[in-house]
Amino acid sequence: MSTEIDADNGSGPSPDSDNDVKTDTDGPRRRTGPLGDFTVTPRVLVIVAWAVPVGVLGAVAAWLLLRLIGLITNMVFADRISTTVVNPGTVGAPWWVILGAPVVGGLVVGLMARYGSEKIRGHGMPEAIEGVLFRRAVVEPKVALLKPTSAAVSIGTGGPFGAEGPIIMTGGAIGSVLAQRLDVTDDERRALMVAGAAAGMAATFNAPLASVLLAVELLLFEWRPRSFLPVTAAVVVATLLRGPLLGYEPIFGLDTSTWHITATSDALCLLAGALGGLLAVAVTALVYASEDGFLRFGRRLHWMWWPAIGGLIIGLGGLVVPRALGVGYDVIGDLLSGRAALSLVVGILVVKSLIWGLSLGSGTSGGVLAPTFMIGAALGALEGFVLPSAGPGFWALVGLAATVGGVMRSPLTGVVFSLELTHAWPALLPLLIASAAAYGVSVLVLGRSVLTEKIARRGRHLSREYAVDPLEYGFADEVMDPAPVVVRVGDPVPELRDGGLGRQRLFPVLDGGDLVGVVGRGVLRRDPADWVAHVVTDPVAVGPDDTLAVVRDRLAAAGVTVAPVVDGDRLLGLVSVEDLLERRQSVAGANRARASAGGTT
User: Fold this and answer.
1) pLDDT by residue (tens digit) across 538-567?
2) DSSP state, 568?
3) 192 close to 179: Cβ distance less than 8 angstroms
4) Which helix (H) or strand (E) holds 423?
5) Which of 29, 61, 420, 453 has the largest count of CB atoms under 10 Å?
6) What is the pLDDT of residue 383?
7) What pLDDT is recorded for position 19?
């Protein structure tokens, strides 16, 4: 153990273990904490209580956003006052409106971003992820107002985007702003921020379970009671409010009574899923190729003008396929019900993909989920003209789930979203096959998703893989040095100093058999006359049944690299950072050895 510690850097937690140790008289010792497998305290109930109003506000924000989108769409394209969400391409607007409205909308969004808040640029999910992971879940209050307003302007003037990204950012801002006014920790503020985001999603799509899964897979980066319970509370409240605000029925309810799903259908879902994964790869590459193009072009033109250029692309696409404009819930419904003609299917698949990917790279405001629904359903509908029929809309639904699983890299969310949007419960197994296949293709071909690539381009790194940390299932007494060099009160320090220190850097000080403190190696070297005055009497200590993760956290919190392991006042050994690294390295080495021998990790 070659780790050094200053003698005066010893403040830290008490030496008592957080876990109780119980011994069976006829069996091995069992290690059980006061809360079993979970790290949670009764304070989580307080956060759950605060998540309830967050859920209410998230539902209201979703309702207001959809009404505002409908109002702007009707005013711009139909010259009327109405808050009903309509497709801009179905109201008979003249060609110059279809071409020019997205340009004006992009210009307004650019001005709002430059003079309001640059954080409203983009589709919302990467910004929410950054807020959760890198900004301590702190969001400016003005973002809660500017993000939905800019999204309503962008979508209402024909932008081919969804409302979910902006509502995630808006709901998250609501939870964050509330939490900033409460006496809460960073983790609790993060839970409330994600609770608001998930509540907005649940109210928008009437999909509570998918919203919770999306929060876990895309925003929380953990599955713990401290965050899961508040998020679920907010989602439940928002879903209950969704009924009187926006309706109780599924958005794209399907009649599955005539479906006949066979083993052949299930097998062909592998092919459909792989094609969905390739589509996900293509549109993701298109988004970032567009962003690269705007960045190169931006050397001569301020980014404020980019959304207007993206709007021109949207307008040109709208002239070719007018129904590709806007959120397009009606188009998704036609695709899923099997009512869409081949011309519409191909037009949506090609034009929607192009105008969405190219305009999103301009930094305008709008979400990715609804466009992904549409192009995925279009791909599946196109496959339905070739593959054996299993029922109206079956292959469109399979394509939707596959594309969501590939674009978002959230296969479970893709499956559950598809089921909750349509209530097509018999399609569970086919959707799981297709979504998993698309996810596999996406991760094999692309290094990052449409969400994480944007974050990586800002100099951040994150991993969305879930795994058990080896330090979570090891204990302090398994890796400690059980026979460290100790200093006893009354020991002849000069003699000890001359040959008994070895390479050890921290020395427990014992009075009889009891630990009374610790002293650093430097003190014993430079001040042998009165070293007792430098003994740290309240050292950072851990118990034998503390997990190595607890040991790591205590060392990090105190800024030290080695600690005594104690049972009451009795010294059992020393544990250091090197011991933790050796445990992690031994697990990693075993995995590498298995992989090189042809095993799995």
Assistant:
1) 788 898 888 888 899 888 888 888 989 998
2) T
3) yes
4) none
5) 61
6) 95
7) 36
574 phi, psi to nearest 5 deg? -125, 145
Tokens representing 238 are 């928002």
Q: Rg (Cα) of the chain, in Å, rounded? A: 29
The whole-angstrom separation of Cα 70 and Cα 100 is 18
Nearest-5° angle of CA 255, CA 259, CA 264?
A: 150
Model confidence at 23, in pLDDT bands (50, 70, 90)?
very low
- Dig out the tokens for 533 from the structure: 């005055």
> Phi/psi zone of residue 214: left (φ > 0), alpha (ψ -120 to 50 degrees), beta?
alpha
pLDDT score recorded for residue 13: 35
pLDDT at 499: 55
SS3 437: helix
* pLDDT at 592 (0 to 100): 54
544's CB contacts (< 8 A; 6+ apart) are: 17, 21, 475, 476, 477, 480, 565, 567, 572
Average pLDDT for residues 332-342, to the nearest whole number?
Answer: 91
Looking at residue 560, its pLDDT comes to 86
Please state whether 499 falls in left (phi above 0), alpha (psi between -120 and 50) or beta. alpha
> Exposed/middle/buried for 157, CB within 10 Å: 0-12, 13-18, 19+?
buried
Residue 425 Ramachandran class (φ > 0 left, ψ -120 to 50 alpha, else beta): alpha
Q: For residues 466 and 601, what is the distance between their CA atoms, to the nearest angstrom?
A: 13
DSSP for 205-218, written as a single string: HT-HHHHHHHIIII
Tell the residue number behind the tokens 């995630």, with chain if given.
168
What is d(CA 416, CA 404) in angstroms, rounded to the nearest whole number? 11
Mean pLDDT of the chain: 82
The beta-strand segments (E) located in 66-222 are: none
Residues 6+ apart with CB under 8 A from 213: 410, 412, 413, 416
Q: What is the band of 27 on the pLDDT scale with cuts at 50, 70, 90?
A: very low
Residue-range domains of the chain with CATH? 44-246 (1.10.3080.10), 263-456 (1.10.3080.10), 469-586 (3.10.580.10)
Q: How would you write 157-189 as a 3-class SS string?
A: CCCCCECHHHHHHHHHHHHHHHHHCCCCCHHHH
| Mean per-residue pLDDT, 272-295 | 90
Question: 379 vs 278, 319, 327, 404, CA distance in Å?
Answer: 11, 22, 18, 12
The 3-state DSSP class for residue 351 equals helix
